[in-house]
Amino acid sequence: MSSAKRALQSSIRSTRPILFVLAFVWFAPSATADEMLRFNRDVRPILTDKCFACHGPDAQTVEGGLRLDLREQAVEDSGAIVPGDAEASEVIARVFAEDADLIMPPPNSHKKLTNAEKKVLARWINEGAIYEQHWAFEPMRPDALDRAESVTMAIDTTIDSKLAELKLSPAENADPVTLIRRLSFDLNGLPPNQTDVESFVRDPSKANYVRLVDQYLNSPRFGERMAVYWLDLVRYADTVGYHGDQNVSQSPYRDYVIRSFNSNKPYDQFVREQLAGDLIPDQDLQTLVASGYNRLNQTTEEGGSQAKEYLAIYFADRVRNVSQVFLGATMGCAQCHDHKYDPYTTRDFYSLGAFFADLDERGVYSARSRPPMIPVPTAEQQSQIKAIDLKIESLRKQTEPLRQELLRRFAEWEENELANLDQPRLQTTSLVDEAEPTGARLSGEWKFIEPDFPPHSGKLVRRQASDGLTQHFFEKLPQPVDVETGTRFFSWVYLDPKSPPDAIMLQINDGDWNQRKVWGSDAISYGRQTQSNNAYRRAGGLPEIGTWVRLEVDAGEVGLKAGDKVNGIAFSQFGGNVYWDEAGVEIDMRRSEAFREAIETPASERHPDQTKQLHDTFVAQTEPMQAHLRSIDQLQSSLEAIRKQAPQTVISKAVDPRPIRVLPRGNWMDDSGELVTPAIPEFLGRLEIGDRRATRLDLADWICDPNNPLTARTMANRVWKLLFGRGICQSVDDLGGQGTYPSYPDLLDALAIDFVRSGWDVKQLIRSVVLSDAYQRRSTPTPQQLADDPYNEWFARQGRFGLDAEMVRDTALWISGLLVEQVGGESVRPYQPAGYYAQLNFPRRQYVADQGDAQYRRGLYTHWQRTFLHPMMKAFDAPSREECTASRARSNTPLQALVLLNDPTFVEAARVFAERIMREGGENTEAKIEWAYQIALSRPIDEAIAMTLRQLFQSHLSHYQRDHDAAIALLSQGNAAADPNLNAAEVAAWASIARVLLNLNESITRY
């Protein structure tokens, strides 16, 4: 007898009498029980919900040594299940027990089997207790696809066959207006234009419908519509999430997603570029941008945070997201213990996370930066860069001919150099004297005065006085100083004998201010160190007071080396009264020993390197070459300026991987767990890569392997969800044991297999679905459909559901004519209530709504503040994107109506639409109402509705004619200028009609 069987039998008393009494209940034949039960469809959901917490995959919590998820343990080892004999099965005895000490699930689990569920378990055992591996982990089966000529036909034959079996009548085809609006919202996220509506109403033929499908799939709007869903999955946002939720630049990643969907990039390539865009052999700027996916997680720069803790947090977040986005798996449940419902172990969790141990990241960031980041020029900037690159290339081609032309005068220069070889050569450049440096950025008080004693130079000096630490400085010189050997920086100072400072300091900026030299005490705190070093070089006591003294800083003594570029100097003091005069840079141009040796060597005896050195020195000091190189430098500076203006984005950068351990119970402080290396979940196989360490690219290749049972199923199911409102497997975020069984598993496999066979063609997948009869049906349920299939599990009808928040906004702007359709770009800030960010700190923020076109961009581009999501988006159920969201919540609340009536975006849209109504709607009230309704909802208005709207218009017109100020207040909402040629009271009254239309359920619902 096995140990499991002994443990089970020793923990129970006989319950056979109970079983015998109830046997007659279980086995009464059912009129609907012709088909054998399937474990995955009928039994596993019961066991998962009610039994697996104690008798499932988590080996650490298995009670009584019994696992019901494994046939070997449930049948052979324990004998708890006797195939073909429910009466002899201890599981059934426990299920039907009445004794609280015996019944399963036990009362303290708060789980209770229904009578129907008990009957299913008994019947399944009597039918042989046939186990199946969980459906999502089994190979995809092509049966439904092989039986049909196309995947579109497979959709219809599969669904129609099941509906016939269920005696459930399918809905009729949707009317042309409903169908074109559905198609336009599903594929483009916007209503159809009136021309397309009229064309399709006149000719709702299959050919015309196919034309519309292709038109919408090829529209640039398609990528924007699909990006909304993808960004939910990958938790894209414009802020870091934790603590102060500071801004982070990553909009180029969003643009990459839009372009990928619009260009119909194969899904497997799309996945590879995001997981390993920095590792693929043919990487480029766009694949690096794509690799930013790995860095979209929430991060922190909170002072006092533990870097090790947050690295563990980022690690777990990444495993959750990767597994859910690409595999439809909930591996996050295995962070602290083996998964209770799926075969994922804790070791699997940390092994999957180990793929990302090579990412260059920090636990705690600082200075509002998330390195590594790269600039990603916009299309306009790329065009400018290309033009400048061509100019630089042309100039560089002219360099050598110019050099040869100049060398004709080399002999004359050589003779002069020999004659003046021992003469001193100092080149002095004044950076500050009578005025601030031109073009530099200034800080502090630059107080130029005429002193009552002689200045060092000119007439003006800068006076700086304070009781404590003070400074003035310049930085970002348009032409930085190139440091050479022998470079020194200087400034003339005069210390007031009546009020000398405690200390004075010169600071040199080469990109940072960590080059300092201090005279006097240690009162100045900048860079202060116990030992003198580059960042705090002590020069001794104060200079002589009451006279002009030249302060000097040799480049080498503060760590500057030849080739560095200096762009600023700071003039600091602690206390006292100091006068500052000319400051600049001096370069000792005396020739080096190598130069002297070369030029003193006869030309016929010189080494080629010596000749080149002399030629280079001569050419570099000629005015034509200097002008030529200045032209190149100016173009290079222009390039640099453009790149600095370009949006930045986070990217992945591979470094030596850090060691990864299994964290016992997920405790980041416990280092006792075993070390793991990158590996896929053990029950799904292993990577065939030999002895080398697996990489993120290996992971991506496995995810996109055509034989991977999860990837294609996950994406196909989510596409179906976008087009029907629910997935074939309703739990689009979980294809595992806690998810739902697919209503059509063979159909889901047909879609997934065809997706892979098509070359992972996303547009083809969508096209195949929207061309099906099932997609084109009405969404209005019949009484029979509501009774027999209330949740539309069998797709006898289409789904009807509220539009996503972004589409609600876009629709209002589109109807009004305000929508600015510009694909890509940085995030924008729509109107938002004042004070909404009052609780945002570190730093405090003042929200400033955008002006101009940016105010009217699509909702996709809205600034996504994770902790304070835009209130309109929040009201319409957009997620914060702190975690993967595969299916948004759907609500219908009074708050939504209040948003549509009062949010400035919608008020402005209504008043601008009102102006359109007056200009374009016709000659009289009736015509205008009919036109407005047609534009807003794409269909003719019913007379009853028209009558109500006419009455409303007259009522509001009378109101605004009596209250002109109220009309003006309404028309002043938003940035768009009001038409001064239109009567204000009439515009306000029509705005009321527009507000009603924008607030209709039909306006914000996809049917």
Overview of this protein structure:
This protein is α+β, with helices and mostly antiparallel strands. It contains 36 helices and 20 strands. The strands form 6 sheets. Strands 2, 4, 5, 8, 12 and 15 form a 6-stranded antiparallel β-sheet that branches. It has a 6-stranded mixed β-sheet with strand order 3-6-14-9-10-11, with no helix packed on it. Strands 1-16 form a two-stranded antiparallel ribbon.
Output the structural class: alpha+beta
Q: Give the number of helices.
A: 36
Strand content: 5-15%
Helix content class = 40-55%
Distance between the termini: 61 Å
Instruction: Give the biggest sheet.
Output: 6 strands, antiparallel
Mean pLDDT: 93
The low-confidence parts are 1-32
Beta-strand segment tally: 20
Round the Cα radius of gyration to an integer and report it: 37 Å
Approximate shape: globular
